[in-house]
Design brief:
The protein is 80% helix and 0% strand. Helix 1 runs parallel beside helix 5.
Length: 122
């Protein structure tokens, strides 16, 4: 007998929502690490445009995080539910790994562009 959708959705939320904090901390850590290692040149990035872009990218990253729900709900309705519930941490690890690529590339691209335009760049 298949569990009700409400039970599966509640289980997914109990698993994924607390881990969203970890996801956001890891992504924030990448951005801060780039900012700190590029200091003092990165101070040219301290502008409202950069803040708005980072907020937008943070919202976009959290929308992408929600894709885990689709995979989780699908897997929980499959015959592999018992295995999936014990192994869904793999999806979290893969998702965080893939999510790290975009902010890393974005920060590197923005830093290179801003540093080229900076009057501090010789």
């Amino acid at each position: 007998m298949l569990p009700r959708f409400g039970e599966i959705a509640a289980d997914a939320m109990r698993y994924w929502e607390p881990r969203r904090v970890l996801y956001n901390l890891v992504l924030t850590g990448v951005v801060l690490a780039h900012f700190i290692t590029a200091w003092p040149g990165s101070r040219v990035l301290l502008a409202w445009n950069t803040l708005f872009e980072l907020i937008f990218l943070g919202v976009l990253a959290n929308v992408c995080y929600c894709a885990a729900y689709a995979v989780d709900l699908f897997a929980q309705y499959s015959a592999l539910r018992a295995v999936w519930v014990r192994r869904r941490w793999v999806l979290l690890a893969v998702g965080i790994t893939f999510a790290l690529v975009y902010p890393h590339a974005t920060v590197m691209r923005a830093s290179a562009f801003e540093l080229q335009r900076s009057p501090l760049h010789g």
